[in-house]
Input
Amino acid sequence: MLQSIITGSGSYLPKKIVPNSSFEGVIFYDENRQPITKPTPEVIQKFADITEITERRYVDNDDIMNSDLATEVGRLAILDAGINKEDLDYIIVAHNFGEIDAHERQIRIMPSISALTKHKLGVKNIHCKPYDMNFGCPGWNEGMILADQFIKAGIAKKILVVGSETLSRSVDPFDRNCMIFSDGAAGVVLEAKESEVPVGILNHYTRSDNGEEISFLDTDTSLNPNYAGSKVNIRMKGRKIYEYALTHVPQVIKNVIDNAGYDIKDINKVLIHQANAKMDHAMLNRVFKLYGLGIKDIPERIAPMTIQKFGNSSVATIPTMYDMMVKGNFENQTLKSGDLVIFASVGAGMNINAILYKMP
Output
């Protein structure tokens, strides 16, 4: 049987650490575009209590572009897989805003990030197709799902799948939600391998709600009417997203597990997109509740968390966790042969997806 197996991975965490205290001099504005009168330290503390974020990572050089991050993790993943880059059939890069100039905050999506990444990797193969995946935070997952379909259809054997973001350049500095987002990149090489037993990507499921949910995560001008920076900033309806995620993400995860013939007790790790720690905890609790289990039944360390130190790097969060775990760089978290792992994400669209992966 032809299986889709991760043979190499790489990740990039920017060196610039931005603690919550760095926002203490900011006057935040509310949704009515009025200054928040509550002292900023109190706003920050409430934010930390809900999200558990204490610091995040930003790119520390204005000359570094999103495609540079994608290129670096692509190089690392190709090296780790031990393959010739010219043998890649596809380079899939997930992102939300393409390239963002650090000064003018201009968004550039032509040429595509995937084409720029192929160019910067020095791949000469004209049959290697660059493919951008714009699917919100679940973009890397969806890139993996697409790659799996290419492999299972017999039209590709080696695919680079990357998630890369410079979200620090796409946030409204006067919106308290700006403290959620961060920069980073990670990716894997997915290869076609023959195996007598099911391994690698076993199952996947995607749900897209594009009705009123389309406005839950969008872009808009700054909440500060006097801000002369970017006119394209992330705007999110936090309560709406929270309710949507809790209602639908657990069922999507259950569908993936059930349709593959497994039970939640068979799952070794659940890598949930790191958007909000309170929301992630609640989603995991609800998954177990769907199986008639309670909080006490959730195995210790089944769901690794990185948001506290890394923030929300969107499409980069799940592959970053995976790479850290397989490289032994995640304290008290490992992945071993035979482990069943869930990759699950929710984001703009609104889109939800989940993948069941068995470690070879």
Summary: The first strand starts at residue 2 and ends at 12. DSSP finds eight helices and 15 strands in the chain. The CA atoms of residues 181 and 312 lie 5 Å apart. The mean pLDDT is 95.
